[in-house]
């Protein structure tokens, strides 16, 4: 058998590479696979909607003792069929981050410092400020004397996490206060 110099180098190079791979543990024979139990095996699964944009992708959130352990796309959801964008894929990190706020922070007008307040105080303060604004800017009749019963100083903005029923209740609440500027995140 007559080998050229090029064929000799290719053959010895291939043999040397094969020896290196064999030494490193590359085994082309059959191997045994070991399956581990899923981390969501004993979890409680809940379906929800992604809160980011107006698309409304479906999610499955797995929890153990009310702690989120996994977030994934819902394959049975008609909108996203299990697929998620990069923001939807990051929801697990949003839910479990140690940097996530867990207390209500309030900064008084003119202050540079945030102070921790209770939920009860914050909700009471929001309701008080809404009532003050509504009472101050309420317009019972327009320039032509027609009854309008509206408030132009408050607006309502719905979010993508609201389903149709919640949007309906939210818009009814806003209209009951006299708001005319009612918008939804999906339209912006």
Q: State which percent range the strand residues make up.
A: 25-35%
Largest sheet: 3 strands, antiparallel
Instruction: Summarize the amount of helix as a percent range.
Output: 25-40%
Q: What gross morphology would you assign? A: elongated
What topology, given as strand order, has the largest sheet? 1-2-3
Number of strands: 8
SSE arrangement, N to C: HEEEHHEEHEEHE
Radius of gyration: 30 Å
* CA(first)-CA(last) distance: 77 Å
Mean of the pLDDT scores? 87
Brief summary:
With 188 residues, the protein is an alpha+beta fold. It has helices spanning 5-24, 86-89, 91-96, 119-137, 164-176, and strands at 44-49, 58-64, 67-73, 104-106, 115-117, 138-141, 147-158, 179-184. Helix content is 33%, strand content 26%.
Describe this structure in words.
The N and C termini lie far apart (77 Å). The mean pLDDT is 87. The protein has helices spanning 5-24, 86-89, 91-96, 119-137, 164-176, and strands at 44-49, 58-64, 67-73, 104-106, 115-117, 138-141, 147-158, 179-184. It is of the alpha+beta class. Helices cover 33% and strands 26% of the residues.
Helices, strands, pairings?
Layout: H1 5-24, E1 44-49, E2 58-64, E3 67-73, H2 86-89, H3 91-96, E4 104-106, E5 115-117, H4 119-137, E6 138-141, E7 147-158, H5 164-176, E8 179-184
Descriptive keywords:
single chain; 188 residues; alpha+beta; 3-stranded antiparallel β-sheet; 3-stranded mixed β-sheet; 5 helices; 8 strands; elongated
